[in-house]
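Lay summary. Proteins are chains of building blocks that fold into shapes, and those shapes determine what they do. In this project we predict the shape from the chain. Here is one chain we studied, written as its sequence of building blocks.
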Amino acid sequence: MEKSKKMYNYHAFGLEIASEVELPGMIQGSGNPDVKILLNKVDPTLVSDAEVEGPNYVVKDGDVFLWWDDIGKVKISEGKQVTVEAIADLDDSSEINIIPFLLGPVMSLLLHQRGFLILHGSSVKTDGGAVSFLGYRGNGKSTTAIHLYTKGYPLVTDDILAIKFREDGLPLVYPGYPHVRLGEDSYLQVKDNTDILTPIKTLAGKVFCDASHKFSPEPVILKRIYVLEKTDKMGITRLKSQETIIDLIRHSVANRIFQHTTQKENLIHCAQLINKVNVRKLEISHSYPDIQQLISMVEDDFNQD
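And here is the predicted shape, written in a compact code that computers can read:
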């Protein structure tokens, strides 16, 4: 008889998750799963007549296949199950490379399958609701969020902004994991207020850092979105509606991988969002001596409402 595998139970994005892969820095769950992460064989070469194909992904019916050289392969099925075939043994420290992908792009796509609007962003909780930061990799989403966290604003989510709409149309942000991923320079700026959770380091060189103080799994109404633009200056400007919708689509998961399959629904959700939330462009300087000035400027702006 095959030995049963140990299951780890977690809670994130309003979901109970049972996983055969141990995942760091997550809230413990109840054990009654909405989602399962299982270890098994994954073979994307068996897929024919794919709806969407890319350099490392295939979409067919309710399944998304992803793969990464020297890391592993994943199948995401109908927002309910993730099947993982890692290159290395799970007991091998080299296997840790797959974990950032499970917590990042894999979770993003699973949440999209479950009907969330997924934007590439981080957010913190203020008295008026969640304030979020959208941007491309390296533009400072996590750095901005962690500096606000150290000023007393609880983290809501890092890198995955998962949104659903209430019956009255207001958007809710569903909290993810009580940690952020920081590069070494960013971590050194805040190391007195957080600590590295695990030796796991992403391929981009980022580490998992604790941000669990006052973290709550309850959804938060989204108050404001800042679209980050990396420049040599700092400033906040209002965006026109046309600019706003383009930026939201550009930073959505559906735009990157699902293309024509769910683009109409994604466009509707983005349009619904800009009708309820103020969206502004945040020009952000990556000069670390200026970071406190930037944080004060953002704090003054969202506290005006």
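What the prediction tells us: The longest strand covers residues 220-231.
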